[in-house]
Each structure stands twice: as C-alpha cells, then as structure tokens.
DNA sequence: ATGAAAGCGCTAACAA
DNA sequence: TTGTTAGCGCTTTCAT
C-alpha cells in the first residue's frame, strides 16, 4: 500500500530539483547556498502539494524528536497538576516541542517502565515531577536522558531542580502580619506537617515554618503558638482552630499552613462569631482558587504552579544542565483578610 | 558517530541468526514458526545485551506509534483536568500507549497547528476535550485521524463522544429530596446558566435542569422556584441564596447547580443561622473534593472526570469508531446534608 | 551549486 | 523454516 502522504521526494520532483535540495530548503537549514529562485520553487511546490514533514522519519535520522516527557508521581493528589501542565505546555509550545504526560502512581516499577517507554521513543528530555515537594531517588534509567526535577530535589544535588521558594513565602506571610502590627498574638495552624516518613516535617512545611519564624525573629518577636496538625483536609484546620480558640489567649492573627486548613479555620472562626478581619486576621498559603472563594476572601501566598511547569521545561530545553536549585517566588495575593492590630 | 544503542542487528548477530528471525521473535508476532531453541537464543541475547526496540524506527515502518493525543481547549479553566488526564493515562497505559497532552486556549489557529503537529508525529488517534460540555466544530485537519470527542459533541453527530449524563444526574438530585419528603419547598440556585453565546443556557445546565424538572413532575409536583445566576464563583451562589432567603417563603431544600454555588449558599445559610440539614436540606453537583470540604459536607452528584478520560481513550483504542454519544453516569455521594421534610 | 547514494533501525515480502 | 532484500521518509556526506 503506497502512502497517501506527500513526501519530500514528491516535492522535489514537482519542483524539478534533487531530494537533497528539497531537504535543505524544507528543513530550513542554513549554511548552504541555494538560489533564491530554486528555493521559492521548492517552497511553492511544498505549499501546493500540502507537504508536511514526517517527524518520525526526521527523528529516526536526527535522533531528535522535539518531544519531552513530564512524568508525575501522582497527578490526582492535588488540584494543581493542571496548572503545572499548562505552564509546561506553554513553554514547550514556544519552542516547538510536544509534551508526553505520564504518571507513576509513586510506584518505582511503573516509573522504570514509563521512563523506558519514553527513552524508546527517543524523547529529548524527561521532567520528573512530584505533587508535594520532596527528595527523590533518580533511577539509573532516568540518568540516560537529560533530566530536570520539578517540585522535588535529588539527594545528591546532581540535577537541575525547580521548587517553590517556600522559605521566602513564609517570611512574606509573617511580614504581612507584622507590618499590620501583629507582634504578640500570631498563631500558626498546621505546623511542620510531620508524617510517618518525615518526623522532622514535610519539606514545604519546614521551609514555610522556618521562614515565618525567621521573620518574627528579625522583628524582635516570636510566634504565640503553633498548632501542629494534619494538612490534608479542612476538618483538621477546623479542629485545630477550635482548640486554639478554647485556650486562654485569644489569637489576634492566624497563619494557616495551607488553603484547606484555612477553609476549616474560617468555619471554626465563624462558629465562634469571630469576624475576619475585624476580630482576627488570617493569612494562608496555597491555591488562588480556593482562598478567593472563602468569605471573606483570604489573603494568601500562593504556589506558582504555572511558573514551576514553565521553568522546568525552559530549563530542560535550554540545555543548561547545570545542577542547581531554582527557587520560584510564590505570589502574594492581598484579599483583605488582614487588618491592623488593635494595640498597634 | 555510531549509535551507542543496541540494535536488533546486534541481537541477531549475537544469537547467530538472521535479522528477520530476530525481528519476528522480538516483536512477538505470531504466525511464523521459529524453533523454540532459536527463540530462546534470541531472547537470551536481547536480555544479555540489554536490547530495547527503537520505537521511532518501528513507527516509521509500521505507521503506528502507540501514542495518542489529548487536546484540551483550556486546561486551567477548572480544577478537573488532572482527573480526566489521570483516567486517560490509566486506559492508555493498559494498552501500552503513551499520551501527548496539548492545549489550544480555545484558539482555532493553535488547534490547527497542534493537530498538525500531532499528525506529523503519526499519532494513532486524537481526543478533543472541552472543559465545559458544549458543541464543537471539528476541523478538516482533525478528521484525518481517528477522533473521539471528550466532554463535547459535534454538531452533526459524526463522532464518538463521551459526556457526563447530566440529565440523569439532575433526576437523581431531585429524587434524593423527593424521597426525603421535600415536595413543596424545593428551590434551585443556578438555573440554566445562560450566557451571551447560549441564551438557552449552557449544555450541562439545561440537562441538569430538565432532569430535575422531569423528576419533580414524575412525582406529581414542581419546583418552588429557580434563581438564575452566574455559576462561576461562590459569590453568585451567596447572593442568590440571600435573595432567596429574603423572599416570603423560606425554602425547605435547595439544589445548587454546582459546587461553587454550594459554597456560596452555605455561607449565606450560615449567616442566616439556618442549619444544614436541620433547617434546610442541600444537594449540589460537582467535584467530590469541594463538596466534602464544606461544613457539614454536602451531598452531591459528581462529575465522573476520571471515567470520562478513561472511556474516551478506551473508545479511541478499541477502533469502535461508531458515531455515538456515550453518557457516563455521574456518581452520587451522600454526605448527610439532606434530612426528612418536617411535614413528611 | 547540485545530485547520487548511504544509511537511521526496523518490518515484511519474497526467495531459497 | 531461514535468510536476503527492499524499503518507511528523511538527512548528510561526498563526488560532480
């Protein structure tokens, strides 16, 4: 069965030139002088016949596919994956690359298989992405192609990594309250988010907390309290906030370690008839969508998902394989949930 | 520069057989009898040398790439894209396919370009996905490869489409309330979601409403009222619910047309000191994540994002190109926001 | 400057 | 049954 497709040979024949001449012109390579007239004839023929290069054939020859792979551990773990993908797509499209997406489900065997499949298809590079910032082990298989780590770090610092700048974010959050005069009654709901595997606390949490504490210290004060709790659902933020409100000292400001906790905190505050921001100031970290949906909307320092995806792809395609940690600034959205401290 | 890769020829040489024998065995094709001993020798050699097929070369030859493209209009428009992708990935992986993801930004020119790029790479099929259910025009370019429409319909019914079964969902939502004895005071917040482009209402909204109304009618009653409003943010649900509460007849039950409206409705009800479900029953449509985060969690009929993605891929790879509308059941999650009507 | 020719790694028709 | 051979569509070296 002959191909129905228009090939480069067809174009050459139609234009009355050699296949190599057609190749030079159509692939737009420089350094070879082809008469303008011939060039135009070739371009015209291509246009006329509706020629399209066969990328598969090109790839076989050049060993470049103009594709990259974005491999997630668990896409469904958060609502953010879409935005990361969007950022990655944007950067890829700008540089004429297409994006494979895959998911390992955090299973090393699946990861191995997927990376293998990607390699078999000769992708130009692989981005390994985690849904929550953490340290990962990079497999041997992985090392065979250009690699960038997205929202994760490798233990030996051998790769280019892109992560949100959590520490600065923590500093910003605390600074917002400090600037409004909240020096004494600032509590944190969430804390270090310790889990079975990370008794010292989850990476993002550690960084946020150390940023918060550094800012307080720099201002010559300190947190009034930290309520450590699970970050996964509003329920935990609700309970943590309730227990906080039952204590002797009513807080004047609360920092919620993520938006889900902030939802719970709002619920608890409302039940206690505490108004935001009149009675209590609130700031959270997280996802622009959620924080803005609260009533009133909550000021938050948000994860730059789009930018994370974008940067990872840019880095991979820039051939700058320097191992380095690229910290992407988190973005501040003031939404009016902070008011000046009474005693200020 | 010689390839560093182990090729099929290397395996054949190592095993002392012809390249075609190696090809037969390694590609696992049937119908040709190769002695078991030879077969084992080839497999052994492949294993030993760490042979991996070059998919690019295979593709060039067979015109099959074992890849499909999933092209979205706007990934960022909702938080759901991740789940759809996850479902799609799952089905693709099961059948040894890899997935390209792309986004058109609802721009026909970008769509054209992307479909072209996919075609140039010889994808085995294309899925066109919309973030909100609607009718789309399928371009000429698109028609050149096997196509499935995800969360959208084509105007002439020429393609296989996968959409959520909104009408049945509407029926279920109403039935939940009816079964609890709510016959008279049932109000809808959201309505037909009419916009500039769709004066008759957005597809999903129309279907949900007609399902709701059909169920009411089948029970010999009707809605007490419909408050038409924008579906995009909790703010609108809040205002709609407030206006509802200000009217003479206090509702006994409210159906919110999506989860964002439900968030707003909860906020309004709480301000009026109406408890869910003691004073008022609530049911919504949407996203399991959001509805379960409300306090109390709200019973909802949820979009089957995962299943939508899964089905689209399955359909595409099953070669069942029959044009048909596949309606995927929406899933009901009872979360206790409905209680028996007082007069029941 | 142009064209002939040799592959990239694999599949599949055909011959032996 | 096995091996030989001709491509898939493109790039690129090397004579002309």
From TrEMBL, chains A, B:
Lineage: superkingdom: Bacteria
Keywords in alphabetical order: DNA-binding, Repressor, Transcription, Transcription regulation
Pfam families: LacI, Peripla_BP_3
One Gene Ontology term of the molecular function aspect: DNA binding
SMART domains documented for this protein: HTH_LACI
InterPro entries attached to this UniProt entry: HTH_LacI, LacI/GalR-like_sensor, Lambda_DNA-bd_dom_sf, Peripla_BP_I
Entry annotated with the keyword Transcription: yes
HTH lacI-type domain location: 6-62
Protein's name in the database: LacI family DNA-binding transcriptional regulator
Organism field: Streptomyces marispadix
